[in-house]
Amino acid sequence: MAPITVGDVVPDGTISFFDANDQLQTVSVHSIAASKKVILFGVPGAFTPTCSMSHVPGFIGKAEELKSKGIDEIICFSVNDPFVMKAWGKTYPENKHVKFVADGSGEYTHLLGLELDLKDKGLGIRSRRFALLLDNLKVAVANVESGGEFTVSSAEDILKAL
């Protein structure tokens, strides 16, 4: 499947997360992104070094600035289960705006065409590192990394595009 790109409508599919009341929610991507400006940024794995020390903290640190530029939702996305994503999110007590969501089986990652084969590292099929800016479900910006790089998908890169 070809990777999602600028101009595409993001496919519908389901993701899971724990809400503010600590209840597990499984929702369609379209239900949380329709009629909104949303940043969906994907990482290869929770608790992994680049994701935990650079990618996620960048979006948490820039969340207020992103919101001031019209962003409604900031979503951190990974092929992990929702319990792992909940635990990972709790390691950022300063976070007020980034929602940690799970694609437990990688099905949504497949729909996006953004799979990354990390079987040789014992991680299985994961998500490539990316940052998408969605405007009413349409991809306005698609910053997709090659391999394990972290060069184009930061919060700063999205801010430059706004």
Shape: globular
Average residue pLDDT: 93
Strand-pairing-aware structural class = alpha/beta
How many DSSP E strands? 9
Give the amount of beta strand, in percent.
25-35%
Q: Strand sequence of the main sheet, in spatial order?
A: 5-4-3-8-9
How far is the N terminus from the C terminus? 28 Å
**Uncertain segments of ≥5 residues (pLDDT<50)?**
none
The main sheet comes to: 5 strands, mixed
Rg result = 14 Å
Protein name: Glutaredoxin-dependent peroxiredoxin
GO cellular component, one term: cytoplasm
GO molecular function: thioredoxin peroxidase activity
Organism: Arabidopsis suecica
Provide a descriptive summary of the structure in words.
With about 160 residues, the chain is of the alpha/beta class. About 30% of the residues lie in helices and about 30% in strands. It contains five helices and nine strands; from the N terminus they run ββαβαβαβαββββα. The strands form three sheets. The protein has a five-stranded mixed β-sheet with strand order 5-4-3-8-9. Strands 1-2 form a two-stranded antiparallel ribbon. Helix 2 (about 50-70) runs parallel beside helix 5 (about 155-160). The mean pLDDT is about 95. One of its GO terms (molecular function) is thioredoxin peroxidase activity. This is Glutaredoxin-dependent peroxiredoxin.
